[in-house]
Amino acid sequence: MGKKKNLVEVAPVKLPYFHGMRPGKYILGLIVLALLLAVFFILFLPGIVRGGRYVDFHSSLTDVGVLIDGKYLGSSTGGHYFIASGDHEVEYIKNGITVSSGQLEIDHPVFATLFVRRTLDVSIPVPDETEELYRSVYDSTLENLVLYAPVQDYDASYNYPQIYQKYAQDAVALSAGDVSRDFYTLSLFASSQAMADDLEAAASMLTDAGVTFSSADPALVRTLLEGGYRTQTDSVTPSVSSQETPDGFHHYESCTVTMGEGSAMDTLPVTVSVPAFEIAHDYVNEYDYALFIQENPYWAKENTDELIADGVADEYYLAGITPSVQNHSSTPVRNISWYAAQAYCDWLSARTGISYRLPTEAEWYIASLDAADKSYARSLVSVDTDLSSPASVMGGLWEFTSTAYVPLSRAEGLTLSTGEIDFTDVVVKGGSYINSASEVTRESVGVMPRDVTSDYAGFRLARNV
Q1: Cβ atoms within 10 A of the Cβ of 283, count?
Q2: Model pLDDT, residue 356
Q3: Which DSSP string corresponds to 325-372?
Q4: What values do phi and psi take at 270, rounded to 5?
Q5: Which of 249, 333, 245 is nearest to 288 (CA)?
Q6: Which helix (H) or strand (E) holds 24?
Q7: Are 43 and 114 in contact (CB under 8 A)?
Q8: CA atoms within 13 Å, Cβ hemisphere of 232
Q9: What is the pTM of this model?
């Protein structure tokens, strides 16, 4: 057993007094102060530094834009926004139209804002005058349908946004009592299963709200997609021959014709009555178009940026082409948009006093029957010495028409003109010199947006009798 060691004596540690206070008291005070500071920094300071509320905007209309003090905040659909304390100017817009405006007062809650979101619910009123707003809803719905109609199948990576149901919600909110014509037109774009389901749901919404409407049958879309549709129309193929006019047009008498074949949505047979008309032997050429540009510099190649900004052409407008009045080029003009072709028709009509226009799909079809014995044009410029029927109807260039591309129109026994319905793509016919003659027939339906240009698309003129 070892020896007991004597430890060195150490003086006890004593906390000093602070201004006469015992250590226990001022330590307790420091703890309390620390707790108070923690409470202040956690529960009060965030609210003092960042005063405001989260605001949920609600509207019976879909996708109303919210502007706070002139700056866009977001959409009313699903929006949960923090707005600083104070008085704010607020404006609600939809499709560029002011729905309502006014003052929005946001108070300054302070306590526990870090943990508790104090939310303010704001209801957006519907204006008393709704006609302008309703028309904008219809137009934007149609524009969206035109964009989504070409897609036949939707999945998680390319979601379909329930366009018809949004239209129905807005129509009900705007107290539209009868939307028969509008909804029927919109229903003609339901070209996929997803769109057919959306159309059916929208029709139920309108029914529940007591709104009068007409619609293509969603079951028709399903039948078409399954290839089970059969037209009940008897086919009519007239005996067609033309008389050549002194100024290079072909004259056709009024007739009834069935164009289309098979069960595909785009080429279903449809029977059309066609009044007497005349159609040009050749395409509008580069020299013709140069004369147009000379009097209409807005359509000059140098003005492409403005044309793009105005939505009437794309960046390839007149690409590779320099129309000149000094060069009498008979080469067909290409890389012009449907809008440009329409502007040319309007200019020539005003210049000559004769009403020129683009041919309808049915008029083009009749001309193609007349030229049925001519071979497929395998080049851009073909020499056609046979003046008894139009040249290069098949092959050469795809030709703009004045017929709107509406997916279900043929199934409904309709053809609609570009003047009857805005924003749609347009039907182009005939194929081009780069297409296979075995793949493109007079029944084939090409589709182009109105502002798009192509090196393989042009136009020829038509006129009424």
Answers
A1: 24
A2: 98
A3: SSS---SBP-S--HHHHHHHHHHHHHHHSS-EEPPPHHHHHHHHHHTT
A4: -140, 135
A5: 333
A6: helix 23-39
A7: yes
A8: 2
A9: 0.86
**Which residues have CB under 8 Å from 183's CB, separation 6+?**
167, 171, 202, 203, 206, 213, 214, 215
pLDDT single digits (tens) 321-330: 999 999 999 9
**CA-to-CA distance for 353 and 360, rounded, in angstroms?**
21
Q: What is the distance, to the nearest Å, from the Cα of residue 244 to the centroid of all Cα atoms in its chain? A: 42
- DSSP 8-state secondary structure symbol assigned to residue 7: P
Where does the pLDDT of residue 191 fall: very low under 50, low under 70, confident under 90, or very high at 90 and above?
very high
User: Residues for the chain: how many in total?
Assistant: 465
Q: How many CB atoms lie within 10 A of CB 409?
A: 23
Residue 383 pLDDT class (50, 70, 90 cuts): confident
Measured distance CA(370)–CA(92) in Å, rounded: 58
How large is the average pLDDT for residues 373-395? Answer: 91
* Distance (Å, whole) CA 19 – CA 23: 10
Any residues with CB less than 8 A from the CB of 329 and at least 6 apart, and which? 285, 286, 287, 290, 323
Determine the Cα–Cα distance for residues 128 and 124; give it in Å rounded to an integer.
13
Asked if 456 contacts 434 with a C-beta cutoff of 8 angstroms, the reply is yes
Antiparallel, parallel or unpaired: β 86-94 and 426-429? unpaired
- Our CA angle for 334, 335, 338, nearest 5°, is 95
Residue among 99, 55, 61 at smallest CA distance from 79: 55
Across the range 379-399, mean pLDDT stands at 91
Contact, 388 vs 242, CB < 8 A? yes
Written as six digits, the tokens of 234 are 């008897």
CA dihedral 427, 432, 437, 439 (to 10 degrees): -40
Instruction: Please give the Cα distance from 395 to 456 (Å, whole number).
Output: 10
CB 270 within 8 A of CB 413: yes
Summarize the confidence of residues 59-66 as an average pLDDT.
95
pLDDT at 345 > cutoff 60: yes
Beta strands in 260-349 (DSSP E): 270-274, 277-280
The two structure tokens encoding residue 16: 């000093």
Sheet strand arrangement including 65-68: 71-75, 65-68, 86-94, 97-106
Q: Pairing state of beta strands 52-58 and 119-123?
A: parallel
Q: Where are the beta strands (DSSP E) in 247-302?
A: 249-252, 255-259, 270-274, 277-280
Tally of CB atoms within 10 A around 213: 21
Q: 3-state SS of the chain: helix, strand, coil percent to 5? A: 30, 20, 50
Cα distances (Å, whole numbers) of residue 19 to 12, 26, 34, 264: 22, 10, 20, 98
